[in-house]
């Protein structure tokens, strides 16, 4: 059985504007939800994820105070805004076929509710897309990657407010029109299912003193479903031949034992996660969602015509991030948790290795994920994120021997080959992040994923110089061979 990657397979890397660009107040950009996250080296490691999973009104107010002395890492990123030509040239040197990135909504509409876009922001992405095209790299663009304008949270209450649908569609239509000759592949919302765990950054809801957080989570998600469908409709009309995808965070879930209660708990957890791609890919709410929402005390407000909009404009492909698997128990309080597994929590799996940040590494789970998603949707798939966060040591000669990253990547590519041999229709793979960026969850720079090292520490100190790690040359060889040469 051939395990070859298809001809024209899109190899590349993935980033997000809020973790990459920096220049948070340059050329008219407004504050986004991610610009509120701080990092403090004195905070115990066990609490680094607390803010990612929640936000308070006081934190949001302080972040808008020009006299705040706190450090906000995502405002700086790795300064791609001023280094994009150099960085894209390095991507091209590796042989990238594609680059998954996001457009910062706040560069185009700084508050989100304006009627006229910011020309300086539009011009920046003109330059980025033109540079990518000059190097033969296909841009794959996320419209919303944890970057909604902060004003839509403070002044409108986030996505539970129906008005935000109109603001998003205006933004989407604006960039579709501007970049119709430069961008074919789009994604509407990054990891849309993660609203279950971090509603602030996903749908702009501040949980503090909230009477019914589940109501606002799923009302916000419904409005995102409608916005995604309307954006898909607009994209197909403005850019003939365009492809629009949904994007979820996906973990394979294993029942902890063969006890029926564990089996049921696992099935329920997996189904709740897939609910979001079900609606976007199939075009309707699954039958079991009625019970799920009722048990959460959620009563969705749907406008007349919403269900028809969802049905008429489903996405063209399904993309997902995959970093780990999780093990589910009906009685997790009795077992050792896997606290680094952000999405589901879950139980520690004794058969798997663990990263420096507690993420359990499961390459075979990626093959299972690809098969499950393709069996479920029968739509083309795209791996939008997969990677290993690790501490890299710079040797005296400047080299970085990140064999652990190479091993991780090799094992996952081998399982992708198996999934393709299984019959899965997969058209691309983008490693998260090909260049060191600020971590989404912990706001650290020292949690590094890149093939390209950036000289910057957790508090923003450093020269920002770029250098190639050992994995840079290895991934270059993989791409040149279309995934066939995985040797050392």
UniProtKB/TrEMBL annotation:
Pfam families: Glyco_hydro_1
One Gene Ontology molecular-function label: 6-phospho-beta-glucosidase activity
Protein name: 6-phospho-beta-glucosidase
Domain of life the protein comes from: Bacteria
Gene3D superfamilies from the UniProt entry: Glycosidases
InterPro entries on file: GH, GH_1_N_CS, Glyco_hydro_1
PROSITE patterns in alphabetical order: GLYCOSYL_HYDROL_F1_2
Record's keyword annotation contains Membrane: no
EC number assigned by the record: 3.2.1.86
Keywords of the record: Glycosidase, Hydrolase
Family per similarity comment: Belongs to the glycosyl hydrolase 1 family.
């Amino acid at each position: 059985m051939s395990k070859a990657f298809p001809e024209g397979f899109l190899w590349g890397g993935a980033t997000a504007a809020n973790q990459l660009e920096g220049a948070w107040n340059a050329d008219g950009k407004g504050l986004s939800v991610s610009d509120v996250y701080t990092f403090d080296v004195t905070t115990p490691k066990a609490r680094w994820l607390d803010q990612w999973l929640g936000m308070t009104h006081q934190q949001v107010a302080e972040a808008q105070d020009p006299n705040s002395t706190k450090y906000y890492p995502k405002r700086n990123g790795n300064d791609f805004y001023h280094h994009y030509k150099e960085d894209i040239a390095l991507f091209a040197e590796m042989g990238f076929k594609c680059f998954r990135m996001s457009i910062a909504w706040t560069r185009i509409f700084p508050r989100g509710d304006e009627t006229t876009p910011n020309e300086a922001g539009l011009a920046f992405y003109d330059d980025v897309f033109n540079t990518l095209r000059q190097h033969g790299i296909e841009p794959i663009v996320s419209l919303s990657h944890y970057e909604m304008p902060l004003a839509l949270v403070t002044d409108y209450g986030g996505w539970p407010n129906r008005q935000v649908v109109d603001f998003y569609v205006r933004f989407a239509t604006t960039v579709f029109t501007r970049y119709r000759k430069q961008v074919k592949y789009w994604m509407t919302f990054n990891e849309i299912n993660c609203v279950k765990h971090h509603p602030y950054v996903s749908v702009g809801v501040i949980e503090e003193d909230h009477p019914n957080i589940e109501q606002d989570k799923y009302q916000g998600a419904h409005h995102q479903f409608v916005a995604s469908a309307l954006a898909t409709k607009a994209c197909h009309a403005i850019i003939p031949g365009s492809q629009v995808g949904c994007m979820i965070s996906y973990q394979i879930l294993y029942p902890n034992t063969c006890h029926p209660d564990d089996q049921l708990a696992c099935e329920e957890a997996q189904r709740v996660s897939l609910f979001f791609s079900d609606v976007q890919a199939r075009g309707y709410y699954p039958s079991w969602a009625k019970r799920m929402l009722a048990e959460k005390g959620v009563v969705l407000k749907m406008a007349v015509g919403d269900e028809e909009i969802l049905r008429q404009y489903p996405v063209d492909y399904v993309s997902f991030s995959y970093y780990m698997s999780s093990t589910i128990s009906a009685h997790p309080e009795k077992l050792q948790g896997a606290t680094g597994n952000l999405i589901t929590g879950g139980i520690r799996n004794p058969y798997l290795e663990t990263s420096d940040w507690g993420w359990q590494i499961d390459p075979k789970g990626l093959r299972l994920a690809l098969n499950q998603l393709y069996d479920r949707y029968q739509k083309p798939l795209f791996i939008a994120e997969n990677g290993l966060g690790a501490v890299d040591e710079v040797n005296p000669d400047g080299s970085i021997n990140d064999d652990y990253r190479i091993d991780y990547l090799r094992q996952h590519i081998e399982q992708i080959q198996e999934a393709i041999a299984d019959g899965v229709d997969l058209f691309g793979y983008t490693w998260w992040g090909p260049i060191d960026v600020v971590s989404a969850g912990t706001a650290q720079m020292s949690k590094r994923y890149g093939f390209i090292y950036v000289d910057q520490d957790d508090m923003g100190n450093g020269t920002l110089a770029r250098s190639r790690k050992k994995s840079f040359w290895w991934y270059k060889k993989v791409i040149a061979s279309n995934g066939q040469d995985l040797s050392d």
